[in-house]
Amino acid sequence: MVKKVPEGGYKDIFNCSPATILVMDIDAPFYTILDVNEAYLNATNSTREELVGKSVFGAFPANPTDEVSKNIERTIFSFEQAIQTKKSHTMYNYRYDIPIRGTDKFEERWWTTTNTPILDERGDVVYFIHSPANVTELIKLGEREKAGVEALKNQRKQLYSTFMQAPVGIAIFKGPDYVVELINPPLCELYGQTPEGMIGKPVFEVLTHAKGLGFEELLDDVRLTGKPFRGHDLPAPIYRNGKLETVYLDFVYEPFREDDGSISGVIAVATEVTEQVYARQQLEEAEERARLAVDAVGLGTFDLNLLTGEMITSKQFANIFGYDEPVSRHEYVKVFHPADLESRKKAHEAALDAGKLLYEARVIWPDKSTHWVKVEGKVYYDTAGKALRILGTLLDITGQKKAKEALAESEQLLRSITSAAPTTLWMSDEYGLITYVNQTWIDWTGMPFEAHIGTKWTGHIVEEDKENAAEKFENALLNRSMYEVEFRINHIDGTTHWCVANGRPQYRRDGSFSGYIGACVDITEQKYMQQQKDDFIGIASHELKTPVTSLKAYTQVLERMLQKKGDVREAEMIGRMDGQLNRLTSLIGDLLDVTKINSGKLQFNNQEFDFNTALEDLLEDLQRTTTKHTIVKKLVPAGLIHGDKERIGQVITNLVTNAIKYSPHSDKIIVYTTINDNELTLCVQDFGIGIAKKNLNKVFEQFYRVSGEMQHTFPGLGLGLYISSEIIKREGGRIWVTSEEGKGSTFCFALPIANRNK
Ligand code: ADP
To answer: Would the CB of 591 count as within 6 Å of ligand 1?
Structure first.
């Protein structure tokens, strides 16, 4: 028979049950506690008195510091669910803190609670059982576990990202084939590969060009012995940017161990040090070059310890001092020229403050020869500012010194020569500013050398001549051409002098323009003589003119008287005399004109005249002067011309007379005119002796005459063409000649007709 629980036994079960039980009324909102068991009292640190008959929320108020759990609301909700649905309702893992009795503090608690309604026969809820299980430990454990897993995950993530982001290349090669298990971007980049292209493949299958270079053996060694390998600045072939390059690597091969300690592969860590290797190589090369350069220029070097007085010197240093091998400092000092010891000492003293040592001194070699040396050094100090060492160089400058002396001598010589010259000499830079003048110019101007430097020399020219001279010089400077110009300058003594200055452009060795070298010659005397000559010619021709004019008058009277008397022969002789007088008059006229031109006094009487009429009259007269030549006219109508009829006539006369004179063996002279929009041109063509090419542009010069044996064949003063060209120039026209020796000449002039009335 089945044993039954004794009467009242259920009460014991209730009390002794390890499950916590609270019996609660359904009197919302109080939910009065009807009964409670031991387990519950234990779990909540309460006594029966504190709970029974009290509202559950009065006994277990909310923890004011717990703002998130909403435990009261959730509990009420669960109560209501149980009562309404008449079924158990469970709340899982929620927080409901328990007051620490006697204080206002709470203890954190987590619960999983079931509220179970108890129904009567009618099925109505009478009360309900509230049974919370304390899950605080469990929850805490769960939280800790979660945190642990999270931390582990984080660690893994961090490790991975460290691995991936490490600035050095890292890879794990597994097994005897060194299959790439893991490789980070830097190493991929170094290999010129992508991770996808490498992971899962034997490394030497990808990096085929690295096969057979000894890397396999290195890896094998590490994998089999467990001894790591470290490589420094090792060259490795890398296929990068589409070509095979040699890069330099620092790398480490470490054995990769499994948890059980067995070696299953190799970890490779690599950094590219190509740049550093190159930099170091370059540095080494630069050092080598510097050393070679020091040797090449014959620099000696020294390192002087200021504390001990000890000095380390190079062999070159010793050689410059006349020793075969380096000696002690004392020995070096001994051979300085005694006269230079003081300045050397001063230089050393000054160096300690200035930080730099610099002096030149003489040393005497064992063979008694003297050598100049230049010492340069830099002082090194400790942090307290105490001078410790001087490092420096030594150079034999004997050659330079000698060259400098020679240069100074030759410059002195040049100065003496230029100073002694009666002409001034000057030099300018490429901007035309004076860089040198000789003593003569200084004497002329009475200003010291320095006052001229950097100025324009035109400053001393008299006002009237300044503009012309400056313009000529500036033009020449612009074109870098030679020039010549005459002007007057005022000397310091108050006298005015004529000068002719010429300048010649100068070029540097590299071909660039460097300025001018020029001279100024005093031509006052020549000018004076020329003036005297001009004056003489003027006076002489003037004095000659009066008697010749009266002579001419008498001959004409005489000729007429003889004709009347019927003395035909005598009359003809007098007629010839008149012809000669005409020539004399014309010669005197030429002389007078030249003096007028030279003194700027040639007068013009410009007016409008009919050109062709005047020309026809003139040519008719000229035809009468020759029996041999026929003047052939080819004329275009020229209309009215503005100018001096007499002067222009004088030019035509001169050209035709010359044509007749210089073509003794021909019988034709052609005079032709042409006209275009703004010029009337007249040409006189002959078929005579012509003019040599080299003389063509000389014929218009004053006093230029046909030379050689012909000089006496053709009389003349050499003034006609000069006067003609001056006249045409003054009338605003041009004059020129074309000629061929032995064939004939054509002299032409052109006059402007731009403002002629049509
Ligand atoms: P002149 O005839 O008095 O010598 P010009 O000034 O008229 O002086 O001429 C200067 C020089 O030019 C002459 O001496 C001569 O050599 C040359 N000349 C001038 N006209 C001619 C010409 N038609 N044919 C050849 N030579 C000429």
So the answer is: no
